[in-house]
């Protein structure tokens, strides 16, 4: 289309034949290829979304009829359950399983630009390729100027609240990470730009009088603890329960390490007794095993206070084998069982003894170890080991 | 633990007839009384001279004997098992068949140590001691064998037999004179040339065996027979202490001429010891240790097997050894651990500062799982 | 003549008409035809004309009736050339393609059970649900793959043939052949072994492919309640010896797992056969069974053991020495000894043994 436009106009210039060129073509706009593509994509996207929405709606009606459910009660949860029923997938990755979601949730979002009727973008920052972050930087610059002006005008005067003349209070929080900022502005930018923005923010925050911009600054701050992960990787710290018969507090949790799944119950007001699959602590012959099992108590300094009761099983043995076969004796290894029990014990101790949560977390005992045995590959003796390499 | 309980046998006669002397030991606790019954929970020292005579260096477990060299003294904890044994030994009588005791317990809870403490106790009460370091030596560590001329099919073990006789001689020095007064019952014809005549002191049998290894196994048998006879006649009391006694019914590594393994009943020394255990003589006490060494798999690091007497002795051994009194050895209690901890601190055995702190004390206690063996090893490295 | 009929036959076809029209209009060859067909009047008509010989007008060839090379080039250069739009090479294939069947379905009127009556691999054109499947590293960038041409959806099993509606239809259809489960068995679980003493278990295995076979489905587990066989004591002991590990003492159940035949039915027959043989063999009394000794017993008895004789001996000696003895303690000890020898040995049981022994000997 572009080429036609060009040749037609050039033709109009070179061969002056006004009658052959119709009127609407004389007013054809000289639009760039990028904008042209954008417009085409935009129209296509809109059409596609319409089609998908209609398809989804029909699909919902079909599903309701298939599963004999009321169409008005068919919310997303019900759809998920129905799809799980119809397509039972044993895949472990939840992202790999079949889904049926409205296209607005599932399909990638289309970036909309606003243009005026002449095809010019609404803001000049469009041409910087990172409009939103440059916009943010401009905003910071403007606010910096205004804060300095405010301070200069009102320092020493009594008409202004004393607190407003202080620098902004940003304790207990930190600047949001680059990823979060990208999500917030819904724009991608380089790390250098992010660094520049943070420098600008820091300068603004350090100015006296920046307390007036507290609200603006706190939009880009997140609390300290949030980044260090208040969410544990693995099972969370369990709730404390009370045993009915003995009236002692206890906590119970199920974790795993390598191939061993362990259900651990830690009971308060005890003597430091261990009962792991019927074995006592002295039945663990290796010092390493005993150290592993006692580590949570040592760190939380509660030696001899808790009783630990644990049962373990092999994860791979829970798969159904034929009854005429002996179940394969697989185990995680020498330290796997103690480590699984240690993780459970640490979580329970953190529940029963909350002041020890921080030391336990810092020592890493509350984190699940996700490592599993690597599969051995064909043409190799093991997972990584290779046969003896011969040059010839 | 005072000896008490409903007594079937009249105790009054016992108490009057013989005074049981408590093994001489330096008490470490504050409530120590010299002539009282053995106080449980205290540390007791064995005099080095006595220890040397009783050959403790080779009979105690390796870590303890090394500690003996380093610290220059043997100090062990008096615990319930030895008190029980002491009270059982008081009951021994010439009219009653020998009292059999089996020490059993988990690994590292003090079976061998208790056995040696009992030997010391017997020494101080002037008993005759027949102490075997380990029955596994007879069945599995046989260096050279000889076919027996006395009974066909039996296998002699000269080196072990000589060792037994030498050990007996060394351990019974305190009653050597008494043994010298005991006389043989009959003529012993060891071989065509050697013989011991009737009514000779039995110490001659011992000398004969030590000097002639190829006769030693038979000498051992004869010695044991004489001891039993004299015990029946109330001339002396005998304590038979066998460590790893369940190996007497276990696996052998002795090969016969046709390249099969000989059963333990084919070994003369095993037969002799079995006779010492059997019920037909009186005025004695047989103390045996049921140890897992016999049945445990050295390559199995993680498995936990049973340590109970029936499991370890096997059906045949169990029925032979019955009726016996099982005496269990257990892990330490907190107070026992504390006593030992204080001793180590006093001796500067615990080297690091962390070990001497309160937190260190608790950690040592719990990390060892209150097991005596693990506790000793942990303290040695801290 | 042959040639003329040939022309005459072709002349009736529409293609021929088309060709004719394309070349020179409707009149092409008509005069010639007329001449050939022999109509005098036509011949007379044509005589007067200069080309009355039955020929067409021979046009003078000046130039070809098409755009010449120069003109086309000029047109192309100036941009006025008519661009011939050619149809697609696969146009006919595309026209032959039908839209997906799911588009022709009406959710209100269509019954799903009619469309998908039996188990079938997933077919994207038939299933009207816009289901997506496919793991993407960055979900926001790219959606899971659509169902058309999606192998993953084909690989996983689907239960489109077993929707609740379908199941209800199945149940309705077979209801008239079924009787209700006895409520007495539901309420009282202890009745089951007497009413249903044998239970047979087997498994079916589903696979991701078209293959329905699995070798493990031939295995049969048959669990028999031995008490319901009503064997005599000797027969029971013989059965226990014959069964070995298959008999569980605590529950009293005999478990037979067979996999030695190729099919499930054969294995089931074999299991029944085994049970029959075991039962009859157990009931047989052999002559050599009389030779059974104490050491052959399954359980160790206190009476007749060396231990008992030794203990009695001990008590005798104690009596002769003039000491108190206790007969009751011996009986109690015997009971404890039996449990100790015949059940799993534990540390606690050994301690109990020790306590009893000490009580008896008075230590």
Automatic annotation (TrEMBL), chain A:
The keyword GTP-binding does not apply. One of its GO terms (biological process) is translation. The keyword Ribonucleoprotein applies. GO terms for molecular function: RNA binding; structural constituent of ribosome. InterPro entries: Ribosomal_Su5_D2-typ_SF (IPR020568), Ribosomal_uS9 (IPR000754), Ribsml_uS5_D2-typ_fold_subgr (IPR014721). One of its GO terms (cellular component) is mitochondrial small ribosomal subunit. Keywords: Ribonucleoprotein, Ribosomal protein. It comes from the Eukaryota. Pfam families: Ribosomal_S9. Belongs to the universal ribosomal protein uS9 family. This is Ribosomal protein S9 domain-containing protein. It comes from Caenorhabditis nigoni.
From TrEMBL, chain B:
One of its GO terms (cellular component) is mitochondrial small ribosomal subunit. One of its GO terms (molecular function) is structural constituent of ribosome. It is found in: Mitochondrion. The keyword Iron does not apply. GO terms for biological process: apoptotic process. InterPro entries: P-loop_NTPase (IPR027417), Ribosomal_mS29 (IPR019368), Ribosomal_mS29_met (IPR008092). Keywords: Mitochondrion, Ribonucleoprotein, Ribosomal protein, Transit peptide. Belongs to the mitochondrion-specific ribosomal protein mS29 family. This is Small ribosomal subunit protein mS29. The gene is Cni-dap-3.
From TrEMBL, chain C:
InterPro entries: Ribosomal_mS35_mit, Ribosomal_mS35_mt. Residues 197-286 form the Small ribosomal subunit protein mS35 mitochondrial conserved domain. This is Small ribosomal subunit protein mS35 mitochondrial conserved domain-containing protein. GO terms for biological process: mitochondrial translation. GO terms for molecular function: structural constituent of ribosome. It holds the Pfam family MRP-S28. It comes from the Eukaryota. GO terms for cellular component: mitochondrial small ribosomal subunit.
């Amino acid at each position: 289309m572009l080429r036609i436009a060009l040749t037609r106009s050039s033709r109009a210039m070179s061969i002056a034949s006004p009658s052959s060129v119709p009127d609407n073509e004389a007013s054809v706009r000289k639009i760039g290829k990028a904008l042209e593509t954008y417009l085409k994509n935009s129209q296509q996207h809109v059409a596609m979304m319409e089609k998908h929405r209609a398809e989804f709606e029909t699909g919902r009606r079909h599903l309701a009829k298939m599963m004999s459910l009321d169409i008005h009660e068919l919310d997303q949860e019900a759809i998920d359950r129905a799809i799980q029923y119809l397509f039972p997938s044993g895949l472990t990755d939840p992202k790999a399983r079949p889904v049926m979601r409205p296209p607005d949730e599932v399909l990638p979002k289309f970036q909309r630009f606003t243009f005026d009727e002449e095809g010019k973008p609404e803001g000049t920052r469009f041409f910087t390729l990172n409009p939103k972050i440059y916009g943010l930087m401009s905003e910071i610059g403007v606010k910096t100027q205004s804060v300095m002006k405010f301070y200069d005008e009102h320092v020493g005067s009594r008409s202004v609240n004393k607190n407003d003349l202080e620098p902004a209070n940003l304790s207990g929080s930190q600047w949001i990470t680059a990823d979060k900022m990208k999500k917030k502005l819904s724009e991608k930018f380089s790390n250098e730009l992010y660094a520049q923005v943070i420098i600008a923010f820091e300068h603004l925050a350090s100015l006296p009088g920046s307390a007036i911009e507290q609200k603006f600054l706190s939009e880009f701050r997140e609390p300290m603890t949030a980044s260090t992960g208040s969410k544990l990787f693995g099972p969370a710290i369990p709730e404390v329960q009370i045993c009915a018969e003995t009236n002692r507090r206890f906590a119970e949790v199920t974790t795993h390490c390598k191939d061993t799944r362990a259900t651990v119950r830690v009971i308060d007001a005890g003597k430091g007794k261990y009962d792991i699959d019927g074995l006592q602590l002295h039945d663990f012959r290796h010092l390493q095993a005993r150290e592993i099992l006692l580590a949570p108590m040592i760190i939380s300094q509660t030696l001899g206070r808790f009783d630990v009761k644990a049962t373990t099983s092999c994860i791979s043995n829970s798969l159904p084998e034929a009854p005429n076969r002996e179940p394969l004796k697989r185990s995680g290894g020498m330290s796997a069982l103690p480590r699984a029990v240690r993780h459970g014990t640490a979580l329970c101790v953190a529940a029963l003894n909350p002041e020890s949560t921080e030391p336990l977390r810092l020592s890493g005992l509350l984190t699940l170890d996700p490592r599993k045995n690597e599969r051995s590959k064909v043409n190799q003796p093991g997972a990584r080991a290779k046969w003896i390499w011969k040059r010839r | 633990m005072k000896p008490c309980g409903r007594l079937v046998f009249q105790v009054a006669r016992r108490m009057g007839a013989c005074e049981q002397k408590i093994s001489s030991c330096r008490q470490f606790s504050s409530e120590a009384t010299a002539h009282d019954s053995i106080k449980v929970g205290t540390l007791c020292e064995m005099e080095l001279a006595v220890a040397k005579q009783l050959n403790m260096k080779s009979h105690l477990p390796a870590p303890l004997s090394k500690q003996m060299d380093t610290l220059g003294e043997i100090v062990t904890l008096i615990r319930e098992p030895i008190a029980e044994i002491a009270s059982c030994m008081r009951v021994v009588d010439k009219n009653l068949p020998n009292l059999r005791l089996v020490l059993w317990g988990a690994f590292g809870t003090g079976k061998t140590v208790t056995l040696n403490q009992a030997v010391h106790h017997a020494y101080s009460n002037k008993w005759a001691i027949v102490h075997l370091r380990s029955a596994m030596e007879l069945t599995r560590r046989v260096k050279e064998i000889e076919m027996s001329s006395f009974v066909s099919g039996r296998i002699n073990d000269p080196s072990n037999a000589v060792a037994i006789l030498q050990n007996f001689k060394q351990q019974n020095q305190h009653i050597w004179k008494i043994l010298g007064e005991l006389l043989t019952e009959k003529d012993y014809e060891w071989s065509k040339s050697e013989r011991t005549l009737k009514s000779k002191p039995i110490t001659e049998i011992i000398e004969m065996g030590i000097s002639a290894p190829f006769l030693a196994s038979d000498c051992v048998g004869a010695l044991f027979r004489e001891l039993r006879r004299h015990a029946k006649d109330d001339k002396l009391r005998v304590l038979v202490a066998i460590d790893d006694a369940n190996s007497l019914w276990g696996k052998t590594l002795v090969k016969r001429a046709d390249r099969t393994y000989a059963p333990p009943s084919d070994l003369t020394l095993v037969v002799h010891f079995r006779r010492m255990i059997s019920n037909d003589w009186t005025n004695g006490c047989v103390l045996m240790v049921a140890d897992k060494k016999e049945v445990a798999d050295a390559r199995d690091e993680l498995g936990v097997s049973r340590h109970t007497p029936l499991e370890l002795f096997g059906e045949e051994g169990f029925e032979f050894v019955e009726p016996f009194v099982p005496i269990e050895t257990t892990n330490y209690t907190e107070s026992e651990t504390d006593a030992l901890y204080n001793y180590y601190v006093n001796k500067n055995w615990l080297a690091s500062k962390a070990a001497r702190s309160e937190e260190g004390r608790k950690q040592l206690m719990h990390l060892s799982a209150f097991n005596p063996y693990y506790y000793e090893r942990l303290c040695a490295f801290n | 003549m042959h040639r003329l009929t040939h022309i005459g036959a072709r002349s009736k076809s529409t293609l021929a008409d088309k060709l004719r029209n394309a070349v020179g209009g409707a009149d092409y060859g008509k005069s010639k035809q007329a001449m050939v067909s022999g109509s005098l009047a036509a011949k007379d008509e044509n005589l007067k004309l200069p080309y009355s010989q039955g020929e067409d007008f021979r046009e003078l060839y000046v130039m070809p009736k098409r755009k010449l090379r120069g003109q086309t080039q000029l047109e192309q250069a100036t941009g006025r050339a008519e661009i011939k739009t050619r149809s697609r090479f696969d146009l006919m294939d595309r026209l032959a393609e039908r839209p997906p069947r799911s588009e022709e379905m009406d959710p209100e009127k269509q019954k799903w059970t009619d469309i998908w009556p039996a188990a079938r691999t997933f077919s994207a054109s038939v299933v009207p649900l816009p289901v997506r499947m496919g793991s993407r590293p960055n979900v926001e960038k790219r959606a899971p793959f659509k169902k058309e041409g999606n192998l993953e959806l084909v690989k996983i099993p689907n239960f489109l043939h077993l929707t609740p509606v379908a199941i209800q239809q199945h149940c309705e259809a077979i209801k008239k052949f079924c009787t209700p489960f006895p409520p007495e068995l539901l309420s009282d679980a202890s009745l089951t072994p007497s009413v249903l003493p044998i239970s047979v278990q087997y498994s079916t295995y589903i696979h991701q492919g078209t293959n329905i076979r699995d070798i493990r489905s031939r295995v049969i587990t048959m669990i028999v309640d031995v008490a319901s066989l009503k064997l005599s004591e000797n027969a029971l002991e013989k059965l226990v010896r014959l069964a070995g590990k298959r008999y569980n003492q605590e529950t009293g159940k005999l478990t037979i797992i067979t996999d030695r035949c190729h099919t499930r039915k054969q294995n089931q027959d074999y299991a029944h056969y085994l049970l029959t043989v075991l039962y009859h063999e157990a009931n047989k009394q052999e002559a050599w069974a009389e030779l059974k000794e104490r050491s052959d017993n399954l359980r160790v008895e206190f009476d007749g053991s060396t231990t008992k004789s030794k203990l009695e001996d001990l008590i005798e000696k104690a009596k002769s020495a003039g000491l108190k003895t206790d007969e009751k303690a011996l009986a109690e000890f015997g009971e404890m000894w039996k449990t100790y020898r015949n059940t799993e040995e534990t540390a606690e049981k050994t301690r109990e043994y020790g306590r009893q022994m000490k009580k008896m000997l008075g230590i």
